[in-house]
């Protein structure tokens, strides 16, 4: 399966990987900024999100991204991953380190840590709503949990639309199992920045601290004002951080 994606711009490649609360539209506030800065920018939808169908058989998100880059003839790219997208980005960078030039993890998840109490409570509440057929309630729960206090109504409405789309696609599809390879964070060789939000769940902040400690040379930026989706909540604050870390196009 080829992931639905957008691509624009010239210069070094940056691939944007979305949160599981959203789809590739979450990067609208960064899209033209990065293109105008001189980058070639790619943003895919993972399976079951946006315009990419849900998986029908075993799947591996990092391998899907590798296959997309191969299809596009892209050997190396900088990766910016939000939440679940950050989880995929860290796995890609560990499994194919020579293909990653920079790594930005925005409030990243990781499968190397067991869920904390707050993450388990959220998952249980979401499961209960979905089992009861209350899709609107599950959407509302996700928006309340993951969108920080600086976000306006338009951002909350956008996240709700993206989350609703994901539920509609995934709940209509048969179950398919993830088939993900193991990985070792010690293999990550790209310069790495981990961004965490002061209003995010404790479990996500713990993941950011864990990844910063385990990836050699990684630096962490704590955004006291941010929730879980800072690139949407206040892009005017986040975009300069991304541009500064990614560097001038000639440098990557």
TrEMBL record:
Tell me where in this chain the AB hydrolase-1 domain is found: 14-239
| Entry's Gene Ontology molecular function annotations | hydrolase activity
Key words, A-Z? Hydrolase
Indicate whether Nucleotide-binding appears among the record's keywords. Answer: no
The UniProt entry, under SUPFAM superfamilies, shows: alpha/beta-Hydrolases
Question: Is Hydrolase one of the keywords?
Answer: yes
Q: What InterPro entries does the database record attribute to this sequence?
A: AB_hydrolase_1 (IPR000073), AB_hydrolase_fold (IPR029058), AB_hydrolase_sf (IPR050266)
- List the protein's name: Alpha/beta hydrolase
Report the source organism: Agromyces humatus
Which classification does the entry list for the species? Bacteria, Bacillati, Actinomycetota, Actinomycetes, Micrococcales
